[in-house]
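Something for you to look into today, if you have time. I want to see for myself how the chain folds. Leave the record below and I will have a look.
***
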Amino acid sequence: MKKFASVLAAAATFCLAAPVMAQDDVISILLGKTDEVFASKGFKPTGWTQRGTLANGGSKTFKLTLAGDGPYAVIGMCDTDCEDVNLVISDASGAEVDKDVETDDAPIVLLEKPGTYSVRIDMKACKTDSCDYGMRAFTQ
């Protein structure tokens, strides 16, 4: 699992660190770059994508149902005004399964088994009143 995590972390860092020109929709661009990089590592989107806006210090929780074989990865991202966003994954019983609470704007969490999960995104540091975010789940 460590090798899997390090490959995905490197992929996430690469695709989200790529320069983004002045565009209308930064999250769409980042999701597209993430798809390209993860595809090159043998991953494909599961069809689960979430987008929105969160106030600085805000959070939101979503349901994620994964079927089939894993492993799985969920990556988060936020716009150019965002400095820190976190992801926390819990199983159906509420037990925490994985989290990425590093001080960065590209959290990634890993799951090995199919099931129903809660995905919480926390907007920890945004230079403005609110920031846009995106999340996407992948399977290998």
Observations:
- The helical segments are 2-17, 26-40.
